[in-house]
Amino acid sequence: MRALILLGLVGFVAQLVDGSLGMAYGVTSSTLLLAVGTNAAAASATVHLAEIGTTLASGISHWRFGNVDWKVVAKIGIPGAVGAFAGATFLSSLSTEVAAPIMSLILLALGAYILVRFTAFGLPRGNLGKPLRKRFLAPLGVVAGFVDATGGGGWGPVGTPAILASGRLAPRKVIGSIDASEFLIAIAASIGFFVGIGSENIDFAWVAVLLVGGVIAAPIAAWLVRHIPPRILGSAVGGLIILTNVRTLLRSDWIDASSGVQAAAYLVIAVLWVAAVVYSVREYRRDKERESVEAVESELRTRAGEEEQASA
């Protein structure tokens, strides 16, 4: 019972992060399932089954708040579903001993990407309003869908930063569109896992509690996306994902590190993680101060122009 309550809380927190940041539900949930000993294919299948419900709820919530661009959803979601099905069948064909470290490596890379991306660069806002081409979104969808299924998460970490980096879509619409299109990826990946491993290795009670936690969090996250600082949240989540998956890898048969090496690695990661969060908080405050100054200067220039017109 305690494990189910914990999973429900994980589902809630993971969806709260995902709906606010456009990523990390699958990565966070899969990381926990791997940490408690679930095999890689079953962990990813469990998460994707839960995501059918959470992504539907999240997509509807984002749509109601005006955060979804349906053209982007169509252009990236359908190719993403193809990539997700392929990734699910590929992961299902690997042995548990091989799949678990591979999945942890993918999750570790995604966590590092999230941490560096949001800590160092924040959110680009350059080319707002310019159209996003299908020749960009379709290959991105295939790659992101494949990574998502094989890594137990990755649709957001691959798709969201790539679209944000283009600067052509408002951040809240990037997040809403990625969350809405993930519904297609969750369905395709789930079908792929049923084909690959069947249903006997999937604990549907775990699916249910992850789903309930995520559905409760979805409307809250859709509202928070307008208010929460993504830079700080990205740094915090990225560090957590890195720490957990390094732990899995150090304890795997691939490395089998001693307790002393493990402790040293955790200490280094924790120091870097705290430093990243502190830096993000500082840069966020600087950005807000800069925006305030620019707003005041713009208002003063406008008033000066109006006074000149009146005197003329």
UniProtKB/TrEMBL annotation:
Family assignment from sequence similarity: Belongs to the 4-toluene sulfonate uptake permease (TSUP) (TC 2.A.102) family.
TM helices/strands, residue ranges: 72-91, 98-116, 136-159, 180-198, 204-225, 232-250, 262-281
UniProt source species: Nonomuraea aridisoli
Extent of Basic and acidic residues compositional bias: 288-306
InterPro entries listed in its UniProt record: TM_pro_TauE-like, TSUP/Inactive_protease-like
Keywords: Cell membrane, Membrane, Transmembrane, Transmembrane helix
Location in the cell: Cell membrane; Membrane
Protein's name in the database: Probable membrane transporter protein
Top-level taxon: Bacteria
Membrane topology: Multi-pass membrane protein
Region span, Disordered: 288-312
GO cellular component: plasma membrane
